[in-house]
Design goal:
With 202 residues, the chain is mainly beta. The chain is built from two helices and twelve strands, in the order αββββββαββββββ. A hairpin with a 5-residue loop joins strand 1 and strand 2.
């Protein structure tokens, strides 16, 4: 999945809306999802600064979990309108309300807790190889990011790119995607480990 930002230049005007339709269909039919992921952080100079690996779980509506395995262990869990961020090494938990954490995890865009049509301008970016791309631009001036790109391959989630207001890009590559397999609900239940420091916005 190369050429994230080149997708627009390769877009066929006749298929401009096709990626948006694909995304809408995917979100409608996908009640759950499991995938391995590779996340790459890229600085203002265009250089990768950190690469992470892990497993992503999604249960619509409103539940998801990122399990970061390498190089550092971290858990991000969403349920009941809140998101928990747990840093294993620091033994630190941060709890945020959904509306305050949109810039923190792009999974919220897939969770069903946020209306894409109401909150974002959705633009088809055409095809880049076997990938169809949709660009989501926040309608709110207060958003912590400039845009999110969502990539679909054969109608299934394959990649995401998030550009924040500090010039940093977050690219996520999905593989081994399994749609609508039963998931244990305990995946989306988070209890702070004993001894962990908890910081909450409440």
């Amino acid at each position: 999945m190369t050429g994230y930002c080149d997708a627009k230049s390769k877009a066929n005007t006749h298929s401009k809306n096709e990626p948006v339709t694909q995304l809408q269909v995917f979100l409608k039919v996908s009640k759950s999802l499991t995938a391995d992921f590779k996340q790459v952080l890229i600085n203002e100079a265009g250089n990768p600064t950190q690469t992470s690996y892990g497993v992503f779980y999604l249960q619509r509506p409103g539940k998801f979990r990122w399990d970061y395995k390498k190089p550092f262990q971290q858990e991000i869990v969403s349920n009941t309108g809140k998101v928990w961020f747990y840093d294993t090494d620091l033994e630190q938990v941060t709890v945020k309300k959904i509306d305050e954490s949109l810039g923190s995890t792009p999974a919220l865009l897939l969770s069903g807790d946020v209306s894409l049509e109401d909150n974002y301008t959705m633009e088809g970016q055409g095809a880049d190889g076997d990938m169809q791309w949709v660009k989501l631009v926040p309608k709110s001036q207060d958003s912590s990011f400039k845009y999110v790109l969502i990539g679909l391959s054969k109608g299934t989630l394959a990649g995401m790119e998030l550009s924040d207001n500090f010039g940093q890009l977050t690219r996520i590559y999905f593989s081994n995607v399994i749609v609508n397999a039963p998931l244990k609900q305990t995946l989306f239940e988070f209890k702070p480990p004993k001894g962990a420091d908890v910081f909450s916005d409440d």
